[in-house]
Amino acid sequence: MDTDSPDLGITFGVEEEFLLVDAASCRPVPLAAEVLDRAARAGPDTAGAGLPGLKHELVTSQVETASAVCTTEAQLHLQLTTARRVLATAAGDAGALLLSTGTPPLPGRVAASEGARFRRIHRLYAGIAADYQVSGCHVHVGVPDPDTAVAVVNHLRPWLPTLLALSVNSPFHGGRDSGYASWRTVEQSRFPGSGVPPVFGSFADYQEDVEARVEAGVLVDPRMSFWLARPSPRFPTVELRVADAAASVEEALLQAVLSRALVRTALTALAAGREAPTVPERVAAAGLWSAARYGLSGPAVHPRTGRQVPGSLLAGELLDLVRPALEETGDGATVREIVSGLLTRGTGAERQRAAVAAGGPQAAARCVAVPLPGRPSRAVASL
Questions:
Q1: By C-alpha distance, which of 350, 337, 352 is closest to 383?
Q2: Integer Cα distance of 37 and 41 in angstroms
């Protein structure tokens, strides 16, 4: 397996989910259809990135963008910036703010989105899905085949909690501080097929497990698993679904380049015949819970020893592990700069809490609002 191939562990893309809130009250509003229609009519992007993929999500206060397939950090940065600019403008024209946060800072009930699959999801999961207004940042990294995808995911398992800790951006639930840095992770944990995935020996084993869950009636279809990393059911990629919605383009980019570096590191290990490190499910679950509870600012669980260590220490170990892959793709300096900013000025969750302390609940929403063109982003400025 040649990791220097231009297609192996190089191509990547990002799907970002966003929330829509009223511009005055900062409470969720059911404006997805109007905002997506306005965005679709925006016309070609003058920066040359092309119009991003725009989609509905589970509820009418939520929208999603999908980047094109990229090979460089610069390409992806332009895609992410363009997508946010188009949607933020459309939201502003509809009297709303576009928020990039894992959960809404203020409560507000909205309806399910139209569509047969969305109706099946709400019918099956009932109260769990009734007010499921959570948003994530999903990263796809190209791999050559499904069996390789499964083997790569096995190598990613130890580091999924650390990716979450770097991304935590959902401290509020129902208008109150949940005490967690990522309440989105808690919300997701109530669904079957969530959390750090099991170890699978092959793609056939993976498919058998997913199909058994569908036949048992706990998954709507094979696309419905909530595992934080999986072979994509739609693309020739590994899909990482661990991160909260990123408060800024830079933080979304961080998840993307770190995810790609982890995949490249896994491919190198597989080429050398090195198996994935063993992480018992209880240790993986403990690590994920700790990352959701504390983010970077508190204890984490070391995947090798199962003991508590500082979250910042694990972040450093992750960067050490993927440093060769980051240097190969030229992303090392960018990652070090963004991580330094998170450690110095706080994660999205910490910045939201600081905003509430200074200006009340609406200030938390405004600090993660995607800025309109020509206006500075508080989230970006804080990094």
A1: 337
A2: 6
Calculate what percentage of the chain has a pLDDT beyond 90.
81
Phi then psi dihedrals of residue 172, to 5 deg: -110, 145
The predicted structure's pLDDT at residue 7: 53
Q: How far apart are CA 106 and CA 92, in angstroms?
A: 19
Give the confidence band of 187 by pLDDT, cuts at 50, 70, 90. Answer: very high
Mind spelling out the 3-state secondary structure of 170-213?
ECEECCEECCCCEHHHHHHCCCCCEECCCCCCCHHHHHHHHHHH
Is residue 349 a part of any domain in this protein? Answer: yes
Q: What is the pTM of this model?
A: 0.94
**How would DSSP label each residue in 251-296?**
HHHHHHHHHHHHHHHHHHHHHTTPPPPP--HHHHHHHHHHHHHHTT
- For residue 6, the SS3 value is coil
Question: What's the chain's Rg over C-alpha atoms?
Answer: 19
d(CA 370, CA 368): 6
Confirm whether 4 is domain-assigned.
Answer: no
């220490």: which residue's tokens? 313
* Integer Cα distance of 63 and 55 in angstroms: 6
The Cα–Cα gap between 105 and 222 comes to: 32
How far from chain centre, in Å, is Cα 184? 10
Least reliable range by pLDDT among 114-118, 199-203, 360-364: 114-118
Answer yes or no: is 69 within a domain. yes
Triad 175, 14, 282: Cα angle to 5°: 65
Give me the amino acid identity at 242: V
Give me the half-sphere count of Cα atoms (radius 13 Å) on the Cβ side of residue 377. Answer: 24
Spatial distance between the Cα atoms of 369 and 245, rounded to a whole number of angstroms: 12
* 228 Cβ contact partners less than 8 Å away, ≥ 6 residues apart: 160, 164, 194, 195, 196, 197, 240, 241, 242, 288
Main-chain phi, psi angles of 33, to 5 degrees: -60, -45
CATH of the domain at 38: 3.30.590.20
Q: Domain containing 252: what range?
A: 12-370
Number of domains in the chain: 1
Q: What is the DSSP string of 223-253?
A: GG-EESEEE-SSSSEEEEEEEEPPSSHHHHH
Distance in angstroms (rounded) separating the CA atoms of residues 259 and 14: 11
Look at residue 228 and tell me if it is in a domain. yes
